[in-house]
Design brief:
This is Acetyltransferase (GNAT) family protein. By secondary structure, this protein is of the alpha+beta class. It has 2 helices and 6 strands, in the order αβαβββββ. The strands form 2 sheets. It has a 3-stranded antiparallel β-sheet. It has a 3-stranded mixed β-sheet with strand order 4-3-6, with no helix packed on it. The chain is globular and about 40 Å long.
Length: 83
Amino acid sequence: MLEVDKFSVERNIDFILLFADHMALYEKNGYTTVENQCTWMKIDHESQTTKEIGCQSLNELMVKNVGNKEWNKGTLDLLGYLY
């Protein structure tokens, strides 16, 4: 995790984002749980086709601030090319 931190700081990245099942491990390393509405593409894994666009708050979402900005409580769009 220290290597990811170093990589992020060297490239002026503001946040590290992850989805975690075992949050305590990440909390010990500076991550916090956030509650943002998320949008993403749902895929049927059997047919490998797009089903629909998902939109809900995900309890597993965590972020770590490695820059100078504050985390925004708005919608997190996981569909765009920047993600």
